[in-house]
């Protein structure tokens, strides 16, 4: 018999607030303005930064990670067991290296720091596949559960403050000087964000089931979206979930506000669906949180659905794209398609199912 994978707990700290109730309250108020952030050379761009706390970079990371994991209400014996921890990030510990003026160690050093901060005793894995990191971490954790290797797993998506990432995206002329407007007529780039998000995956049934998922890499488009890869990864996720295009009730696309990538994504989605389902975008509220985006946006979206909050776009859509963001949640909401796109040609998708119906 096939083993199901369910969402057993969540936690979030993002620009909207340091926990889910704070974040949902800020979302209902229309969000929080991005913070102007300056990098060497005098260049300034908006960033959806985490609310500040005391201490240096490491102290802030440790405190935030503990706070987010605490929101998941993990049993003490579960955290102390052989339950695996997947740490997903794009920038890893670059912020610490900037502050300390030295390298911290190999790629695994960051995940080990996070594990130590939350008192983790089980195996620890690093997943760093650019902006698809957290989605791929969820897929890896789900594979272990479905394979009967473990009954539960924790995924932590972490994108913490640093100047290198901001300067790099600015140097590639990918950033908006004002705000992100996914699928908007006046979109002119993305806005970065910081977040720490937790998802506990389990074989124990609950409301939200990870019904399917996939990852496809388009090696010939290392810095942009590929329409063929979007179609392929979406079909693969739906195939694993045994659903058809007509079964999808809501799409959470990548929708970062990029002039070119938004257009490519819109074209691919219209290829997949004869009539596009309602769509929702979260990056205008929390920014593009890169390696953490898959976890941060998933946690926030499902929380919005559960409490009846909804992120509404307050700008005009680009009529040439033929897509629009929903002003309210759909009346029927059983299957949610969740897409992510990242540097390196990564295209990932999750298919979430509401099992409460």
What's the number of extended β-strand segments? Answer: 12
Distance between the termini: 22 Å
Integer tally of domains: 2
CATH architecture of the largest domain: 3-Layer(aba) Sandwich
Number of helical segments with 4 or more residues = 11
CATH fold-level name of the largest domain: Peroxisomal Thiolase, Chain A, domain 1
Spans of 5+ residues with little confidence (pLDDT < 50)? none
Structural class estimated from helices and strands: alpha/beta
Shape field: globular
Beta content: 15-25%
Q: What is the residue-averaged pLDDT?
A: 95
Q: Largest sheet at a glance?
A: 5 strands, mixed
The CATH fourth-level homologous superfamily of the largest domain: Thiolase/Chalcone synthase
Q: Looking across the biggest beta sheet, what order are the strands in?
A: 1-8-6-4-5
Radius of gyration: 19 Å
Helix-residue proportion: 25-40%
CATH class of the largest domain: Alpha Beta
- Compressed to H and E, one letter per element, the order equals EHEEHHEHHEHEHEEEHEHHHEE
Describe the 3D structure.
This protein folds into two domains: 6-202, Thiolase/Chalcone synthase (Peroxisomal Thiolase, Chain A, domain 1), CATH 3.40.47.10; 208-354, 3-Layer(aba) Sandwich (Peroxisomal Thiolase, Chain A, domain 1). Helices cover 32% and strands 21% of the residues. It has helices at residues 20-28, 57-70, 76-79, 94-100, 108-117, 133-146, 164-171, 227-241, 259-272, 283-286, 293-307; strands at 6-13, 35-39, 43-48, 85-88, 124-127, 152-159, 192-193, 195-202, 208-217, 250-252, 335-342, 346-354. The strands form three sheets. It has a five-stranded mixed β-sheet with strand order 1-8-6-4-5, sandwiched between helices.
């Amino acid at each position: 018999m096939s083993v199901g994978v369910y969402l057993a707990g969540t936690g979030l700290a993002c620009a909207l607030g340091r926990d889910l109730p704070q974040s949902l309250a800020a979302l209902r108020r229309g969000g929080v303005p991005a913070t102007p952030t300056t990098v060497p050379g005098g260049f300034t761009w908006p960033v959806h930064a985490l609310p500040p706390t005391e201490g240096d970079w490491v102290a802030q990371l440790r405190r935030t990670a503990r706070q987010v994991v605490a929101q998941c209400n993990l049993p003490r014996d579960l955290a102390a067991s052989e339950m695996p921890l997947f740490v997903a990030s794009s920038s890893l510990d670059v912020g610490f290296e900037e502050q300390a003026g030295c390298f911290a160690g190999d790629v695994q050093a960051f995940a080990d720091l996070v594990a130590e901060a939350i008192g983790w005793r089980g195996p620890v894995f690093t997943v760093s596949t650019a902006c698809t990191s957290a989605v791929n971490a969820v897929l890896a954790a789900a594979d272990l559960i479905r394979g009967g290797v473990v009954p539960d797993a924790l995924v932590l998506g972490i994108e913490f403050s640093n100047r290198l990432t901001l300067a790099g995206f600015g140097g590639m002329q990918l950033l908006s000087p004002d705000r992100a407007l996914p699928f908007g007529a006046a979109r002119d780039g993305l806005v970065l964000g910081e977040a720490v998000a937790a998802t506990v995956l389990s074989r124990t049934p609950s409301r939200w089931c990870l019904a399917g998922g996939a990852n496809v890499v388009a090696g010939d488009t290392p810095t942009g979206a590929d329409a063929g890869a979007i179609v392929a990864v979406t079909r693969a996720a739906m195939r694993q979930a045994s659903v058809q295009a007509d079964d999808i009730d809501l799409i959470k696309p990548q929708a970062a506000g990029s002039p070119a990538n938004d257009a490519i994504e819109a074209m691919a989605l219209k290829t997949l669906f004869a009539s596009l389902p309602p769509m929702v975008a979260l990056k205008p509220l929390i920014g593009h949180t890169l390696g953490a985006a898959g976890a941060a946006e998933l946690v926030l979206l499902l929380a919005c659905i559960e409490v009846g909050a909804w992120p509404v776009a307050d700008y005009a859509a680009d009529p040439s794209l033929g897509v629009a963001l929903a002003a309210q949640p759909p009346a029927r909401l059983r299957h949610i398609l969740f897409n992510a796109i990242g540097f390196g040609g990564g295209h990932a998708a999750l298919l979430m199912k509401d099992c409460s119906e």
